[in-house]
Amino acid sequence: MSNYIQSDSSSFPTLRIDLQTYEESQDLAVGTCTLLRHFSSRIQSDFVVLPCDFVPPPALSLTQLLNKFRTETTYDGSIATTCFYEASRADKSIVTEEWGILPTNVPIVYDERSGTLLHVDTPDDADKNNEEFELRMSLLAKYPRTKLSSSFRDSHVYVCKRAVLDALTEKAHLDSIRDEFIPWLCKPQYQQTRREKYGNILSPVSNNVSQGMALKHSTLHLPAKNDRLRQSELDHEPVDEHMRSIVPSPVDDSDEHAVEPSLRVGLVVHRASSGFALRANNLHSYLDLNRFFLGQTTYTLPSDPENRSLIDQKAQISGDSMIGRSTKVEERASIKRSVIGKHCVIGKMAKIVGCVILDHCVIADGARLEGCILGAYTKVGTKADLSRCVTQPSYEVAAGESAKAEKLEISDWTAHETSEDQDSDDDDDDESTEDDSD
């Protein structure tokens, strides 16, 4: 990314990227909240949290979230904006549980009219009461026409005020921004006790009132419902000629009193009908994304002679497949609805259906693969048969071996044995060196 920004073709000549790294312990997983607290001193303004694995459609742009955030934080004191996307539930008849936890939708409560996220059902909530959905009366009193849905997933895209980091510092025990902090951040907007405790932190004294006043008197702003009702009442009251001649003040009674910030969490809801969106944060979703994009492309043979010569004329490759450069496909190999990475070798009469094969993999003659994900440098032996399997990088499948719905990993004892062999080889080399020196 840095090279692109600094290149002549870049459209951002003045943009500077300050890349910071965080040394994560191998024994302890670190959540987004921990990272934000760690780098909070370097974040001096409003900020955006973006995942590296969210794939949105063209209809869902970051600009949509930013515009909503800018408008609502200025006008009514909103503190954050997030995005949830509609996703279908995983079909348990075709997925493999051995690949890991199945992706699940998150039950949320939101106000569609104002685009406000009100409640997120967390894993802790489900553990406490899995049969009932508990909501506070203060929420329903403030938003009487809320909607409850379990058709959405969190995109992990958050646009936040800088003050949110100060509140996060106060909640030092929170680690997950999705399962802990955002659900907590929704509550001060309708819980009076939390508003009194964290209101000054989430919305410190600033120029928000003057900015809101400017927006309110702009030509693009629609007056609030109570303002329209009051104006209607005035229109029906008898007014003498002296009152008619008075020029109306740009500052009305409502501006003379500081408006209490809403502390809302804005919500952008993306429907599946507007485009396919998904996070590739698990193996199931990763495979679904690859299959989706395969349906949007049509495979054609390489145009350059070097790569064209690597594809045998008798190989059968369907149009809904993708083949990386420098990949060799030998005689009578069959590839359907699959993604093949770079520098791979597909042997004679090998059959590959609905698979994702990463770079530098070798599939021997007569091997059969269906619905698999192969890590880089995986080797599949002659006439091996794999169905709905995923392999760790550098895994080797023996010739004639069969596996179904498994997660094939290099065992710890194998790695330990390899390291011991390397140590013994090093010791032998040291001894031979000493003998030579004598």
From TrEMBL:
Q: Which UniProt keywords apply?
A: Cytoplasm, Initiation factor, Nucleotidyltransferase, Protein biosynthesis, Transferase
Ranges where the record places region Disordered: 409-438
Q: Where would I find the EIF2B subunit epsilon/gamma LbH domain in this sequence?
A: 310-389
Tell me which InterPro entries the record gives.
eIF2B_gamma, LbH_EIF2B3/5, Nucleotide-diphossugar_trans, Trimer_LpxA-like_sf
Does the record carry Acetylation as a key word? no
Q: Where is the composition biased (Basic and acidic residues)?
A: 409-419
One Pfam annotation, family name?
LbH_EIF2B
Q: Name one GO biological process term.
A: cytoplasmic translational initiation
Q: Name one GO cellular component term.
A: eukaryotic translation initiation factor 2B complex
Q: Which SUPFAM superfamilies match?
A: Nucleotide-diphospho-sugar transferases, Trimeric LpxA-like enzymes
Q: Where is the composition biased (Acidic residues)?
A: 420-438
Localization per record: Cytoplasm, Cytosol
Entry keyword S-adenosyl-L-methionine: no
The organism's place on the tree of life at top rank: Eukaryota
**Molecular function as annotated in GO:** guanyl-nucleotide exchange factor activity; nucleotidyltransferase activity; translation initiation factor activity
Q: Which family does it belong to?
A: Belongs to the eIF-2B gamma/epsilon subunits family.
Protein's recorded name? Translation initiation factor eIF2B subunit gamma
Annotated gene: P9WN43
